[in-house]
Structure formats: structure tokens, C-alpha cells
TrEMBL record:
<dbReference type="InterPro" id="IPR006938">
    <property type="entry name" value="DUF624"/>
</dbReference>
<keyword id="KW-0472">Membrane</keyword>
<dbReference type="Pfam" id="PF04854">
    <property type="entry name" value="DUF624"/>
</dbReference>
<feature type="transmembrane region" description="Helical">
    <location>
        <begin position="138"/>
        <end position="154"/>
    </location>
</feature>
<feature type="transmembrane region" description="Helical">
    <location>
        <begin position="110"/>
        <end position="131"/>
    </location>
</feature>
<feature type="transmembrane region" description="Helical">
    <location>
        <begin position="39"/>
        <end position="59"/>
    </location>
</feature>
<keyword id="KW-0812">Transmembrane</keyword>
<protein>
    <submittedName>
        <fullName>Uncharacterized protein</fullName>
    </submittedName>
</protein>
<feature type="transmembrane region" description="Helical">
    <location>
        <begin position="71"/>
        <end position="90"/>
    </location>
</feature>
<keyword id="KW-1133">Transmembrane helix</keyword>
Amino acid sequence: MTIGASTSALYYVYGKKVRGDSYSIYRDFVKGYKESFKQAFPIGAIVTVVLFLSIFNLYKLNNMGGGYNALKILQVFIILQILLISVFLFPLISKFNLGLYDLIKDSVILAYKHIIVSVCSVVMFTAFIIFTMYKLSFALFAMSVYAYISSYFIEKVFNKCVKF
């Protein structure tokens, strides 16, 4: 259930690495985890539960036969929306101190304004998950590699959108 806080902390460390700031993997991860826990834990729990239920529903609908195509499409739509929004959700938590409404609003805006980055990140994430299912040892570093690669694209988007 702490996947949200851990993901935010991971993006906190990789954000510093991509920007060229000095960082300590352990200290910065713990710092990012502590700073984002209050906000990232409930959001991560909600995202995880919604994704799990949607995937479970899709699995059950596939087992029920072909008469439920509209519900299958709805479940795939929900899964894609959550994944697209999540591309920017946890990096935003790690970098900015926003309220819940602003966080979700900004994640949706960024996900659709930068749809190529969002879709590429979701495709890369899905590919890593599928590859991990076939090669279980890949699970040890798959999400770190994904976060590292996606951090470059996300940091470019943040730099375009935020002028300091």
C-alpha cells in the first residue's frame, strides 16, 4: 500500500539526478518518502485499488463471454485513464507542494497536453510489466529503469511548464 509514497520518493531521487543536483540515494529517498508520505500514501492506495479492481473486472468479464463488450471497453478506458494520469501524478507529488485538487487537475492537464510523453511512458511501463511476467528476475530493477527513463521526459515537461 505504500507504493505511492515509494514511487514519489523514487521520482524525488531521479529528479535530482536528471537535473544534475547532488544527491544521496538513501538519504534523498528517505527524505522524499517522508515529505510525500501524507499525500502520496492515500493517492497511491486509491490508484492501486482502482487499477486492481478494474483489471480484476476485465479478467472476470473476459471469462464471462462476449456479451459484455461495452463493460470491457469501459474497464480498459478506466485503466488507461489511471495510467495516463499516474505518469505525472507521482512526479508532481515529489516536486511540488500542491493540494489534492490541484494535483489531480495538473496531472490530467499535463497528461493530455503532453500526450506523447504520457503514452510513451504508459507503453514503456506496460512493456516492463509484461517482460517481468516472463522473466521474474527483471522485477528487481524494472521499475527503477522505467522511473529513470521517464524522469528525463517528465523533467523536460516540467521545465517547459514551470519557469523559475
